[in-house]
Design brief:
eight-stranded mixed beta sheet; single chain; alpha/beta
Length: 493
């Protein structure tokens, strides 16, 4: 044991050394930027989209790693974002109903579930969340979490207020596919991008008719992809100007697929397949990975990059770890969206996609105030009523009931058209996939196995119907839909 007058001096030297080492370690920790985009599938040129060019996302892919089989665990904003920010399935943490916990009844995270920004802030990161829409304002960017959270987990909506040398975590929230249809955005898009995508050049999924309304909408959507790429480029340019690009981990992903009749809110590729591109320190360059990953995995790799221990209950996996073992399957779930009650689950392996429709006596396009307000859905309903849709569109979009189970060879059947659940040759695969889903529901504590309490539904619907929320025909339609949901539930549908 050290004794005598030399001990205080030595202790002081050790403290200085520790502080210096800690400062050095802090400098080595990368900045972390997430680009989180609304309502957009993998329609970027680095993913094979031919009608547009997306040079900035392409650059990220060229200088980093691109994942071709990334899927969200929920195909709608708030459950997806609740899962992403915690690294846990929305069905595990009770955040699985879209825009839930907004009324008098609240949702609280279970023990062991902690938002990523909280963990990073505790580790010394400057945490921020912003978007071009709030630039220059004090407002934060889009959060949309279904649980109660402390606003103090974010320091600001931009990293410019951090201390010198302090690493930052920034979520850049981009409006993505939600831009389309807005006159203000169209003027801005034309100013920035010039020529528009021509509707006549668009290729639609085979279950959508080549109708002018749908073609115009899809062309506008592709322009939102171009504009999103432009916004990504603006952020990258700023990082370069500040000399910190190569010390920053960039993650680009979307919160779910394109908002369309079989996309957003549904568990087919159109709704759950998303782009995932990562660039930065330690990330393999020019690499393409085809293994199955879930969007919540971004939470785990972020903590790992920051040197922050992953919570024991976190279900995300660090897909960039040297010892990472690829997932054998990925899972997704859809529950109530706004007023519309639903209960869908899926499991996907390298070959098969299995979907369970628990409320299969209801139609695919249930009444929904949000989706029925879209011109594309109104047009599809008009064509259905006029008997102008082909057999595929009628069967997939407007059948009065759905099969209880769906099974697709998804890499062969790109648009999930041929349901093999009733094919005797696929019986073994059907049974195996069904069992995988049952085990996942049990092992993860899927809270959707129990219907949402009427008190919670009533609480959230009161919020939807609150003063100033809806008026006129829109409010009437919402009230009718709410009553329809209750009637079907009473009928056991």
């Amino acid at each position: 044991m050290l004794r005598g007058a030399g001990w205080p001096a030595l202790l002081g030297s050790l403290v200085v050394l520790l502080i210096a080492s800690a400062g050095f370690a802090a400098e080595l920790r990368p900045n972390i930027v997430w680009f989180v985009v609304d309502d957009m599938s993998a329609n970027f040129s680095c993913y094979g989209e031919k009608l547009i060019e997306t040079p900035h996302v392409d650059r990220m892919a060229r200088e980093g790693t691109r994942f071709t089989h990334a899927f969200v665990t929920a195909p709608v904003c708030s459950p997806s974002r609740s899962a992403l920010i915690t690294g846990m399935y929305q069905t595990t943490i009770g955040a699985h109903h879209h825009r839930s916990g907004r009324g008098v009844e609240k949702i609280h995270l279970p023990e062991g579930a902690t938002p990523v920004p909280t963990l990073l802030k505790q580790a010394g990161y400057y945490t921020c969340i912003g978007s071009p829409q709030v630039a220059g304002k004090k407002a934060l960017g889009k959060t949309d979490y279904n649980f109660e959270w402390d606003i103090a987990m974010y320091d600001a909506n931009d990293w410019r207020g951090r201390a010198p040398g302090q690493p930052f975590f920034m979520q850049v929230q981009l409006h993505g596919g939600k831009y389309r249809g807005g006159k203000k955005w169209e003027d801005e898009c034309q100013r920035v991008l010039g020529a528009w995508v021509k509707p006549a050049d668009v290729t639609l999924p085979p279950y959508y008719p080549r109708d002018p309304v749908l073609l115009d909408d899809w062309a506008s959507y592709l322009d939102t992809c171009r504009y999103t790429d432009y916004e990504v480029g603006q952020v990258i340019s700023r990082l370069e100007q500040e000399g910190i690009l190569d010390q920053t981990l960039l993650v680009f992903l979307t919160d779910h697929g394109i908002s369309h009749a079989r996309g957003k809110q549904f568990l087919y590729d159109e709704g759950t397949h998303v782009p995932l591109v990562i660039r930065g320190p330690g990330v393999p360059r020019g690499t393409t990975r085809a293994d199955l990953v879930e969007h919540i995995d971004v939470a785990a790799l972020t903590l790992a990059a920051a040197g922050v221990p992953r919570p024991a209950r976190m279900q995300a996996r660090d897909i960039l770890a040297a010892d990472y073992q690829p997932r054998e399957a990925v899972f997704a779930a859809r529950d109530r969206c706004d007023e519309t009650v639903e209960h869908l689950r899926s499991v996907r392996t390298e070959r098969w996609l299995y979907i369970r429709n628990y409320l299969n006596q209801r139609p695919h396009l249930q009444p929904n105030n949000y989706k029925d307000g879209k011109a594309i859905i109104r047009r599809l309903r008009e064509l259905h009523d006029a008997k102008q849709l082909d057999e595929v569109a009628e069967r997939l979009l407007f059948a009065p009931q759905r099969p209880a189970e769906e099974l697709y060879e998804w890499q062969v059947d790109r648009y999930q058209i041929n349901n093999l659940a009733g094919d005797a040759r696929s019986a073994e695969a059907l049974g195996a996939m069904r069992q995988r889903l049952v085990e996942w529901e049990a092992s993860t504590g899927d809270r959707g196995r129990v219907p949402e309490p009427e008190s919670m539904y009533a609480s959230d619907m009161a919020e939807y119907l609150g003063a100033g929320q809806k008026s006129g025909p829109q409010r009437q339609r919402l009230e009718q839909n709410i009553e329809q949901m209750r009637r079907w539930a009473a009928e056991g549908k």
